[in-house]
């Protein structure tokens, strides 16, 4: 009898240990998730409360009388520095700056990756190594040199304006920021695309060559249509980085009409006149964070795996 | 003048010479197979013909036109790649017509060409599918369709069957052969599979370390290998290459084979190659294919020079169509190919017939054929 029951008891003991392990693991995970979600929760509930409720109530309590007023005020009426027209203008500033910067840096990264893997030239590895180096440069160290370069470009823009009649955007703070973000994004985008194209079957390129496709035709017709996964990854990465950038934005477009969202948000929060409107600040911060969230939700759908299936082998 | 001529082709990667002076030529409508172990340079040679690799020196001519420095698309060639290299983002029809699209052929004409090729390869029902939705054999067909549609002067195949399973490979091999017979195109074909080489080729170039070891018809390569490497590489099961010495029996030369724990076998030769007399008393390599070493009843009746000797059978392998018997001669396992119903037991002594007209001899020092 005992010989039969002992293994059974051991087995049930094993199941218990398993369950306890699960509880510990999921308990810890839930705790961490809570820890990360707490600030977001506070921001969300605060942005829907009235000032009265904030001053007298519990920070974690949900709004008793939910109101959209703080969001409306943040978007259209709140004061950024001395102008009180909301953050909407700065939101569009950021969009105008981020979209070209992301697209240009991603396309250049794709082109670089294509050349570095499929058109290997002497010293390609060295070039790639140097480009990788760009990923490790601390941005603070380039602030001043870049300011000098942007200054020269601006003066050149003025010269052009006077002689040809157009500055081609040189000296425009938005153009400056696009330029800076493209330059510092290339290192990362090249890294992403090079590693992706490294595993891309070279025989496809050879087949296209035999078919008579030119350098750019191969890029456009063969490489790009099969790059969706890495394209999405790069766009998400670049969009998040550039949208959230504060350092370059405040250094090169920290004042005036071209100010991007991050700097404007900082100015909203730091406005020192009157009462601190926490609900408006929180709403503005949420608006500032929305585009990156949106990009994740929309682009994430295109993380299609196995796009390459069928190109080579079974 | 041959249709495809390759003269003194050399290819160097830095300090390493990959191709060391290749000379081959192929008549119009011929089927040249480049065969050799991996790393012998056969794929590189094919890529230089395609124009996907530059050459260091030498000349490649197709139909009298030097194509050394032409872009791949200007060489009037089509290539089938090992991995098929179908564009995964395009449909089968798109894949087949991509080359024409790049050359600016009007859409109506493209459609006509697609339909024609689809009919030949029986892939009409697949035209709107993507490569990912095709089986291995279907992809292979599409890859061939992409080549066929160009109607080029020269077809290049880079190990096209190596990704298929064994049965499909045999089917596709026959299909390629049929295609060659019906279209009469000129083909250069790379493989490491000597059976593919034997069955498909009109000419074979056996390559090793960037050099052509032997260039000839399949029969020449099989029956008259110029050196040990070619003899060993071509044929399955492989040729028996037995260390032996040359002795005399009467006024003829004989091959002396050592046996374990018994007196050596001496096989008298009626018409030994002339070069062999210089090797009297010296070691040589005696090469005999398994089918030339058989039971006396199964031996070729009209062969002029058959010697029979008693051999100790160690292993018997019935393979269905044949029975293979392994004996030990000259310190090596030697395979004999017997009739399927040969009554033979392992561990016994059985007379085996050596067909010496089919035997070949090699100098162990130079590895070259003794003629």
Description of the molecule:
The complex is a heterodimer of chains A (314) and B (371). With 314 residues, chain A is mostly helical. Chain A folds into two domains: 1-40; 77-300, MetI-like (MetI-like fold, Orthogonal Bundle). Chain A contains 13 helices and no strands. Chain A has helices at 2-47, 51-56, 69-76, 88-118, 124-133, 143-163, 173-198, 202-210, 215-223, 228-244, 247-253, 261-270, 278-300. In chain A, α4 packs across α10 (228-244). By secondary structure, chain B is α+β, with helices and mostly antiparallel strands. Chain B folds into two domains: 4-233, P-loop containing nucleotide triphosphate hydrolases (Rossmann fold, 3-Layer(aba) Sandwich); 240-362, OB fold (Dihydrolipoamide Acetyltransferase, E2P). Chain B is built from eight helices and 20 strands. Chain B has helices spanning 42-50, 92-102, 107-121, 136-148, 166-183, 194-200, 218-223, 228-233; strands spanning 4-13, 16-26, 31-35, 57-62, 65-66, 77-80, 154-158, 186-191, 203-208, 211-216, 240-249, 252-259, 262-268, 283-288, 293-294, 306-318, 322-329, 332-339, 349-355, 360-362. In chain B, a hairpin with a 2-residue loop joins β4 (57-62) and β5. In chain B, α3 crosses α4 (136-148). The longest helix of chain B has 18 residues, at 166-183. Chains A and B meet through α8 and α9 of A and β6, α2 and α4 of B.
Largest sheet of chain B: 6 strands, mixed
**Biggest sheet of chain A, in brief?**
none
Oligomer: heterodimer
Annotated CATH architecture of the largest domain in chain B: 3-Layer(aba) Sandwich
List the total number of helices of chain A.
Answer: 13
Radius of gyration of chain A: 27 Å
Radius of gyration of chain B: 25 Å
What is the fourth-level CATH superfamily of the largest domain in chain A? Answer: MetI-like
CATH class of the largest domain in chain B: Alpha Beta
Compressed to H and E, one letter per element, the order of chain B equals EEEHEEEHHHEHEHEEHHEEEEEEEEEE
Span between termini of chain B? 30 Å
What is the total tally of β strands of chain B? Answer: 20
For the record, the count of structural domains of chain B works out to 2
Shape of chain B: elongated
Q: Estimate what percentage of residues of chain A fall within beta strands.
A: under 5%
Structural class of chain B: alpha+beta
What name is given to the CATH topology of the largest domain in chain A?
MetI-like fold
């Amino acid at each position: 009898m005992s010989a039969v029951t002992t293994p059974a008891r051991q087995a049930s003991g094993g199941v218990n240990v398993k369950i306890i392990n699960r509880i510990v693991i999921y308990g810890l995970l839930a705790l961490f998730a809570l820890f990360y979600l707490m600030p977001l929760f506070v921001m969300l509930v605060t942005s829907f409360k009235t000032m009265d409720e904030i001053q007298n109530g519990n920070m974690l309590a949900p709004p008793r009388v939910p109101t959209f007023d703080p969001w409306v005020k943040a978007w259209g009426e709140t004061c950024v520095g001395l102008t009180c027209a909301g953050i909407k203008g700065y939101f569009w500033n950021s969009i105008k700056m981020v979209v070209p910067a992301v697209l240009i840096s991603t396309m250049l990264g794709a082109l670089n990756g294509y050349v570095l893997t499929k058109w290997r030239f002497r010293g390609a590895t060295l070039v790639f190594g140097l480009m990788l180096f760009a990923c490790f440069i601390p941005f603070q160290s380039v602030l001043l040199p870049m300011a000098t370069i942007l200054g020269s470009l601006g003066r050149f823009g003025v010269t052009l304006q006077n002689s040809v009649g157009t500055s081609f955007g040189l000296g425009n703070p938005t153009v400056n920021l696009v330029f800076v973000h493209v330059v510092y994004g290339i290192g990362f985008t090249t890294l992403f695309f090079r590693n992706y194209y490294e595993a891309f079957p070279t025989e496809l390129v050879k087949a296209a060559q035999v078919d008579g496709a030119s350098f750019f035709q191969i890029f456009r017709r063969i490489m790009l249509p099969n790059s969706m996964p890495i394209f999405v990854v790069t766009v998400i990465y670049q969009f998040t980085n550039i949208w959230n950038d504060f350092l370059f934005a405040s250094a090169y477009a920290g004042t005036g009409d071209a100010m991007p969202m991050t700097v404007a948000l900082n100015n909203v929060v730091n406005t020192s006149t009157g009462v601190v409107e926490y609900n408006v600040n929180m709403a503005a911060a949420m608006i500032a964070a929305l585009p990156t969230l949106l990009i994740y939700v929309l682009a994430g759908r295109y993380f299609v795996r196995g796009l390459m299936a069928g190109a080579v082998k079974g | 003048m041959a249709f495809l001529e390759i003269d003194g082709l050399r290819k160097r990667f830095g300090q390493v010479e990959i191709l060391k002076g290749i000379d081959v030529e192929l008549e119009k409508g011929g089927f040249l197979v480049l065969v050799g172990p991996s790393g012998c340079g056969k794929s590189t040679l094919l890529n230089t013909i395609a124009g996907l690799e530059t050459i260091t020196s030498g000349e490649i001519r197709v139909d009298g036109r030097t194509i050394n420095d032409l872009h791949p698309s200007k060489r009037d060639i089509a290539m089938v790649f090992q991995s098929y290299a179908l564009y995964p983002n395009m449909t089968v029809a798109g894949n087949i017509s991509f080359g024409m699209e790049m050359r600016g052929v009007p859409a109506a004409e493209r459609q006509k060409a697609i339909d024609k090729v689809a009919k030949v390869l029986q892939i009409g029902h697949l035209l709107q599918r993507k490569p990912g939705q095709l089986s291995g054999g279907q992809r292979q067909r599409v890859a061939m369709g992409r080549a066929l549609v160009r109607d080029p002067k020269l077809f290049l195949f880079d190990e096209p069957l190596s990704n298929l399973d064994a049965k499909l490979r045999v089917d596709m091999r026959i299909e390629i052969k049929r295609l060659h017979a019906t279209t009469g195109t000129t083909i250069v074909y790379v493989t490491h599979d000597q059976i593919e080489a034997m069955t498909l080729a009109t000419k074979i170039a056996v390559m090793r370390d960037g050099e052509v070891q032997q260039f000839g018809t399949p029969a020449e390569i099989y029956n008259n290998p110029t050196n040990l490497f070619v003899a060993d590489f071509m044929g399955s099961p492989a040729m028996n290459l037995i260390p032996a010495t040359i002795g005399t029996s009467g006024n003829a030369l004989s091959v002396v084979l050592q046996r374990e724990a018994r007196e050596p076998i001496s096989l008298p030769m009626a018409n030994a190659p002339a070069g062999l007399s210089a090797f009297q008393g010296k070691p040589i390599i005696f090469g005999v294919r398994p089918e030339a070493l058989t039971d006396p009843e199964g031996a070729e009746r009209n062969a002029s020079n058959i010697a029979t000797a008693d051999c100790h059978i160690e292993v018997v392998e019935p393979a269905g169509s044949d029975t293979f018997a392994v004996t030990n001669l000259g310190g090596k396992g030697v395979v004999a190919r017997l009739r399927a119903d040969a009554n033979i037991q392992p561990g016994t002594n059985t007379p085996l017939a050596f067909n010496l007209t089919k035997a070949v001899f090699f100098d162990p020092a130079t590895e070259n054929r003794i003629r």
